[in-house]
Amino acid sequence: MINLMTGLKERVAGTKPRERHLLLCGGVPCLSLGCRQVKEAVMRELDNYKLSGEIELLEAGCIGNCRLGPTLIVYPEGVVYRRLTVENAKEIIEGHVLGGRLLEHLLHRDDLTNEIQRRREDMPFYRKQQRLVLRNCGVIPPHIESYMSNQGYAALAKALTELSPGQVIEEILRSGLRGRGGGGFPTGRKWQAAREAEGPRKYVICNGDEGDPGAFMDRSIMEGDPHSVLEGMILAGYAVGAGQGYIYVRAEYPLAVRRLEDAIAEARKALLLGNNILRQGFSFDVEIRVGAGAFVCGEETALISSVEGTRGDPSPRPPFPVSKGVWGCPTVINNVETLANIPPIILNGGEWFSRIGTESSKGTKVFALAGKIRHSGLVEVPMGTTLREVIFEIAGGIPDNKEFKAAQTGGPSGGCLTTGHLDLPLDYESLREAGSIIGSGGLIVMDEDTCMVDVARYFSGFNRQESCGKCTTCRIGTKRMLEILEKIAGGRGTEEDLARLESLAELLRNASLCGLGRSAPNPVLSTLRHFRDEYLAHIREKRCPAGVCPDLTRHVIREERCRGCGLCHNICPAGAISKEGRTFRIDPDKCVDCSACVRECPFEAVRGRKRRKELTRA
Amino acid sequence: MKRTAIKRKEKYQELDGVLEKYKGRKGVLIKALSEAQEMYGFLSREVLIHIACELDVPLSEVTSVVSFYSLFKTEPSGRCHIEICSGTACYVKGMQDLLETLEEEINIKPGEVTGDGRFGLSTVNCVGACSAAPVVKIGDELIGDVDSKRLKQLLGKYGHD
Amino acid sequence: MINLTIDRQQVSVEKGTPVLEAARKIGIDIPTLCYLKDLNAPAACRVCIVQVEGRPAFEASCVLPAEEGMVVHTNTPAVLAARKQVLELFLSDHPFECLTCERNLNCELQRLAKRYGIRDLPVEGERNHYPIDHVSPSVVREPDKCIRCRRCVSVCENYISANIYRMMDRSFQAVVGPAYNGSLMESPCIYCGQCITVCPTSALREQDSTARVFEALANPELHVVVQTAPSIRSSIAEEFGLPVGTPVEGQMVAALRRLGFDRVFDDCVAADICVIEEATEFMERLKKGGPFPQFTSCCPSWVLFCEKFYPQFVANLSEVKSPQQIFGALVKTYYAKRAGIDPAKIFVVSVMPCVSKKYELLRPEMKASGCQDIDAEISTREFVRMLFQAGLDIRKLPREEFDSPLGSASGAGVIFGSTGGVLEATLRTVYEWAGEKPLKRLEFEEVRSLEYKEAVIHAGPHELRVAVARGTGAARRLMDQVLAGKKRYHFVEVMACPGGCVGGGGQPIYIETNDWNEQVSHRTRRAGGLYQLDREREYRKAHENPVILKLYEEYLGRPGGPRAHKLFHSGHVSRKLYADEPLLKKERDLVRR
Ligand SMILES: Cc1cc2nc3c(=O)[nH]c(=O)nc-3n(C[C@H](O)[C@H](O)[C@H](O)COP(=O)(O)O)c2cc1C
Ligand code: SF4
Ligand code: SF4
Ligand code: SF4
Ligand code: SF4
Ligand code: SF4
Ligand code: SF4
Ligand code: SF4
Ligand code: SF4
Ligand code: FES
Ligand code: FES
Ligand code: FES
């Protein structure tokens, strides 16, 4: 194996970055915040000072703490400069790189203590994580040389020279790894079934559809560490006896497609893909298939149809893909994150992996934090870490002094966790018991300003739109559920509607053809379970407590903000505002919704009536 | 019939280059459609008939696929196409305000094109930049952390006065 | 064999059998809407759900393979309630128009709604609304009544191979239809009507011509003549409570007279002419050396299929028209002259098991007599409706005879309606013309993998390779073999419908079974007994039928001669698969007759 690796390293001619180099985050969130422009500015400055030959500017995938983006790390010190603009480039080169000065105003300060945090290791955001899958993300550029200098492809070399396919599967079984795509099915068992299945050819598919809106870890892995996914796939191919792999990536991720294409080309050149890999007699190649905008294509039978070039219509299981998948041949389908876990398991042994996490959920899980949270971004923690640790200790809690209300996990197939769940360990079983799922690991944090009926309506709208329309319960049922929710949100709901909603939800869950329809009711059922009061407020009192549902909101003066200045009272054309105690109050019967008070109040104490209509998608 | 076929052939020389490499191969329809859309901006009936005939796939199959995937467009968009992310993170962070701003400023809803053909608007299910929500894509440019003010500036940059 | 328990009863079935079929074995009828055994099993409708012990959710029994030790419950209150809910969802997106619906009392959705006692809809909401496609001459589509079962997709793809239908769009508004959910007129539909016969609801139905026929009958100016296809005389029987397939030829003739037709003729005579003309053409090709194979041309759907999908074979199509058109041409020339009636005043109606003939009669070349040769066609279904309306009960009518001078046909003309019949009828003549020996019953060898039959016969000096393709799907495979040089034939019969015309798209729709093959065999059984009729005939070969001989002698001249050519032959053209521009709404209204 050692020989193999040395030969391999010579072939890819790995160059280690020089001591002094710059690493810029090129992940999509940072891109959207302008890192490309920062990069160009930094390059200009390097040119200006004739440093381009000396100091390398590397671009990595998402570093994790995207709220600090665009981010530049200056090595060897590892100093993190955050929220950069084009203007900062000159300062950094002049001040830090040439002048050796720390630029304090560009450093991150702790949100609470205001303490300066210079390096990643100083930040609680990183300190409390255990980065296994994200080991390379944001640390090295997504190229084969860098990957190999971080033990890349060593697992493959080990497997090809030391392990039989059966032994690879045993190692995975021993690790206890379960699928990270949502189902949580033991990966080793899936591989074993595919190995035993009979067919003229076999296939491995990497599921990079990541349709859950609000999740972006698979994207970050494909962009930031594409070779780990490839290595995982090759190992899967070796273990089950497949000769061809497909990576199914959604079209919304063009950068991921480009990075994977580059990685595949690099791997082919290094004899890591194609005929007779590393001259060990095993052949495997990978092709990319790009989706075209359909959430259901993440479902495995739909994904197979889509890989075959047709509509992503799911089909009944059995037959399962492991016995009849692409072109009718046995097919292993694994999620991106699942596959990225494979190389370290093979390298360090299943035993090692199984010591991380909880009894039934081994290893780590990457969560994509977004919504009303201070540090949105990617967080990887051992399974079983509590929600509180993730939200408050790692990600800094809720901004703007708002109250935490709920965390939505599992996206449109998942449910909500509430304050009562803050100490719940995040693992497959605990979340299922709480009425949600880990899903792919999207975690959207919601604060007091979020209406849970609206959230249910949002997800129902999503599921309705993404239903493939094949089976009755889901095609018509998701539409009817959405209609009932709209009725409730519009203040026209009755308590019978809640019963209808529940019985429809039950039907969809029990009688739909595929996972989309079967889990579509989850967001509804889970909000009904944890926030029934809010539904009842909409129904009985015709009131939206969070002030979100347009038909149920009024102009109100927020007591806590009103300073009693009376300006609004003076301007109100309808005479609807009168003093009540220390503050002012709006009489809803008199108010004519002109919003003059909203504009007039110097303290932003008047919350206006929402005019918002239903979310139209197209 | 012959004449129209010849006319089509001339018109779609560029596309034929693409179709040539897919002919007789399995599972390539989506790829071919994507490339065609890239070429022409949208998939007209004529283009779809051409693809159906060249790849020997029924037109019903082609339009079935096109109508299934949300990224395929059968109508031209504006010269500048705006996509607003409607994923959960962006929804929670107020993407609806952005839609409202656009309705106020340039008077279009998702799926529509402005009268002067300058702007087209659609929503998209999460572009994976959720930590920078709400996110807007204008042309090829992805912009995070957008609020109404920023959006108005951007409209100006793309020619709205 | 596999043992499982269904509703506390033991049952053994073969491995892989769906639970639904296993349940049927012990007399439990699980409802279905999308399933059609051996044709369609998308697991889409969800009315066949059952509870399997140990499974977290219901399973669709139509696709669930029976497993050893499985314990299934098909009728627990929970299962029944869920099925009812599924039906309620269906109805919440369905027009409530049973009273005015063609499939009233013969509709699978309606029947299940009755069976499950649906009384009201707990959840209602927006319904889809799509325009009715009434543009094509043969098939009407009403997408609002579509339940997305995809049976039409399967039959058109697998059996007909025209691939007209697919699921369009997605989500709530997803619907089954031609490209763009547009009109069949803009698609390469060949109007065979097979999709109608499998549709569980009235989403697909024939263009109804009964009103036009009643109108003509009411017009004193018109001399209204009717011809009936061979199979009609037995396929209407069961609609009147008689055993399936009872021949009621005489009563049918009586009924037609009572409906007010001035003359009632047998179409089989035209079939005899068709045989003679095709045989003549074939002899000529033998002389000239081709082009081979000669394809039969009496099925308009097949002709259209060839013109659209295989234009390279257009020259191989026989030039002889179908019996329907031969008959029309004959009535408006020969008969008109003999009876001394102005052809423009004759209104010719044909009764056929077919909906494609509605399209065929509109083809511009079908004007051999100077005016449109056939004025209207009604399918078996429409014919039965007319009889019901007129209160004519076949059981209570006397037997009457067809009108001469176009009287009795030979057995060859009779078997025309069955698969292989055209080929055999023609060969009976060819054989004797070429070899001067009578032909015994034709024996075919099944070419199972290709779904067609072939045979080699020695006629005089010739070794003739012949084949019969059932369904244009089979024809496609046969033609591909020929194109690839793997097969060579001299004569090939193609009929678009399963079992030939007796299984035509205009036959009564039979919903008592969810097995495609059973449906087909029921249709063909109705019209069965054709071979028996053939055996009972005095003359079994077309060229021996004295009626025909007299006709040629008196009027037509020699077979294939100038007059026969003018009346009975037509050219074929290659056609475009797709309309470049879709029909505008305005145009649609214009096209509608
Ligand atoms: C509606 C639906 C959407 C799904 N979307 C995804 C997805 O985007 N990515 C993914 O990896 N798995 C998704 N899955 C799960 C896959 O079907 C499949 O279980 C998974 O890819 C298997 O890989 P794993 O065992 O590695 O998790 C989805 C499932 C359903 C029902
Ligand atoms: S459950 Fe929904 S997505 Fe799945 S097959 Fe049925 S309609 Fe399609
Ligand atoms: S919205 Fe207008 S009418 Fe209503 S309270 Fe404010 S100022 Fe008065
Ligand atoms: S203007 Fe604002 S602060 Fe002043 S009284 Fe009105 S609500 Fe209160
Ligand atoms: S299709 Fe069936 S259920 Fe629908 S209106 Fe007609 S008879 Fe009634
Ligand atoms: S079935 Fe019922 S609704 Fe229909 S006609 Fe009879 S009584 Fe009236
Ligand atoms: S009439 Fe025949 S060809 Fe036309 S759609 Fe129906 S089955 Fe297909
Ligand atoms: S048209 Fe008829 S056969 Fe076709 S999917 Fe609809 S209901 Fe089924
Ligand atoms: S086989 Fe007969 S019934 Fe069917 S389309 Fe052809 S002519 Fe009509
Ligand atoms: S994309 Fe730059 S830190 Fe996440
Ligand atoms: S939700 Fe908008 S980018 Fe993910
Ligand atoms: S799902 Fe079984 S019959 Fe439709």
Distance between the termini of chain B: 48 Å
Strand content bin of chain B: 5-15%
SSE class of chain A: alpha/beta
Order of helices and strands of chain B: HHHHHEHHEEEH
Determine the mean pLDDT of chain A: 93
Percentage of residues in helical conformation of chain A: 25-40%
CATH hierarchy class name of the largest domain in chain B: Alpha Beta
Radius of gyration computed on alpha carbons of chain B: 19 Å
**Quick one: how many beta strands of chain B?**
4
pLDDT < 50 runs, ≥5 residues of chain B: none
CATH architecture of the largest domain in chain B: 3-Layer(aba) Sandwich
CATH hierarchy: architecture of the largest domain in chain A: 3-Layer(aba) Sandwich
Q: Biggest sheet of chain B: strands side by side, in what order?
A: 2-1-3-4
Question: How many strand units of chain A?
Answer: 20
What is the gist of this entry?
With 161 residues, chain B is α+β, with helices and mostly antiparallel strands. Helix content of chain B is 50%, strand content 11%. Chain B is built from eight helices and four strands; from the N terminus they run αααααβααβββα.
Protein described:
The complex is a heterotrimer of chains A (618), B (161) and C (593). With 618 residues, chain A is of the alpha/beta class. Chain A folds into 5 domains: 18-121, Glutaredoxin, CATH 3.40.30.10; 144-354, NADH-ubiquinone oxidoreductase 51kDa subunit (Rossmann fold, 3-Layer(aba) Sandwich); 364-447, Ubiquitin-like (UB roll), CATH 3.10.20.600; 452-540, de novo design (two linked rop proteins), CATH 1.20.1440; 554-607, Alpha-Beta Plaits (2-Layer Sandwich), CATH 3.30.70.20. In chain A, 39% of the residues lie in helices and 15% in strands. In chain A, the strands form 6 sheets. Chain A has a 5-stranded mixed beta sheet. In chain A, strands 13-12-16-14-15 form a 5-stranded mixed beta sheet. In chain A, strand 9 and strand 10 form a beta hairpin. The longest helix of chain A is centred in the C-terminal third of the chain and has 18 residues, at 472-489. The relative contact order of chain A is 0.09. Chain B folds into 2 domains: 3-68; 80-157, Glutaredoxin, CATH 3.40.30. Chain B has 8 helices and 4 strands; from the N terminus they run αααααβααβββα. Chain B has 161 residues and is α+β, with helices and mostly antiparallel strands. Chain C has a 5-stranded mixed beta sheet with strand order 2-1-5-3-4, with helices on both faces. Chain C has a 5-stranded mixed beta sheet with strand order 12-18-17-16-15. Chain C folds into 2 domains: 2-75, Roll (Ubiquitin-like (UB roll)), CATH 3.10.20.740; 210-580, Rossmann fold (3-Layer(aba) Sandwich). Chain C has helices at 19-25, 77-92, 108-115, 151-160, 194-198, 210-218, 232-235, 249-259, 268-288, 300-309, 323-339, 356-360, 380-390, 411-414, 421-435, 471-483, 516-526, 530-536, 546-556, 562-568, 585-591; strands at 2-6, 9-13, 49-52, 59-60, 71-73, 139-141, 166-168, 175-177, 204-206, 223-228, 263-266, 294-295, 346-352, 376-379, 445-447, 452-459, 462-470, 491-495. Chain C has 21 helices and 18 strands. Chain C has 593 residues and is an alpha/beta fold. The relative contact order of chain C is 0.12. The chains are: A alpha/beta (618), B alpha+beta (161), C alpha/beta (593). Chains A and B meet through helix 2, strand 12, strand 16 and helix 18 of A and helix 3, helix 5, helix 6, helix 7 and strand 2 of B. The site of one iron/sulfur cluster has 14 residues of chain C, from helix 4.
